Amino acid sequence: MLHGFDVSMKILITGGAGFIGYHLAKYLADRGDDVVVCDNFARGEKDKDFQELVSRPNVELVICDLTKTEELKKIGTDYDSVYHLSAINHTELFYKIPAEIMRVGIMTTMNILEWMRKQDRKTKIIFTSSSEAYAGALKAFGQLPIPTPENVPLVIEDVRNPRWSYAGTKLIGELLFLNYAKQYGLRVSIVRPNNFYGPRAGIGHVVPDFIERILGRQNPFHIYGNDTRSFCYIDDAIRQMVAVMETEKTDGEIVSVGNAEEIKIIDLAKKLFDVANYHPEVVIYDSPLGSVKRRLPDLSKLYNLTGVRAEVDLEEGLTKTFKWYKTHPQI
Q1: Is the domain covering 10-197+231-260+297-312 a CATH 1.10.10.10 domain?
Q2: pLDDT tens for each residue of 125-174
Q3: Is the pTM value of this prediction over 0.85?
């Protein structure tokens, strides 16, 4: 269903109190849609920004734990679209609580798909996967196309390494979504985010981690690995995800979303040093076990199907993000 300027839609966002969920809910509410935000607040925050969002007349907060089937009755029915974002995403936690990451990721996905079977077949649901899903293929096979298209093999490099707990839930989630669609006639799309960043991203990811340490005046400044990544500002990310949702061309498709600009982690740090006007000594350590040396998405499919590209350049996005964290030191 395409969005019309004179017609509001009813939209469900699972995991809606998290980083992506908050910005997605705000974007949809700003344009006039009726948004239901579902979260159990195991990770999401009821901060001032979020409380202001859910106080709007067209935004409803439903507190529920989607790992429990009986809780799904709280979210109601009759949605035009559903964004399934529920997950625990925090690199440090991949190592600390891998079993819980898998339990939440797999059970919420199974339960929301079973719920979807009872909905109108016009309703479309997006699964938010991750570039982590194909990260193991690079090390397993020694190479991946750079930029990387969506049809590369999905590989868990080492099942004993808890680093792959999160990636495992995304690989399984993609299988579940595509096979539920095939067996039960559901409208689904899968998006693979690539390093989204921006205000209210919490901690535990590279950009907010660097900002936190810059604000704390860490010197020498520690960088673990000198891998390359692409970083997509959250406003661009949301526009891309909504574009994937709102065209029938993406039904049944896996679409990478992000930015096509590749950068070394040391150069990312230097850009943030310039933004903060702080230039410490830098010490580079080895990458954590399981870290991928290069990751850059091929975004040609996204553009061909939606016509949407990233517009916010890295310097602008980092400046906005740094200013937000500087004024929100409690985060």
Answers
A1: no
A2: 999 999 888 877 766 776 788 899 999 989 888 899 998 999 999 999 99
A3: yes
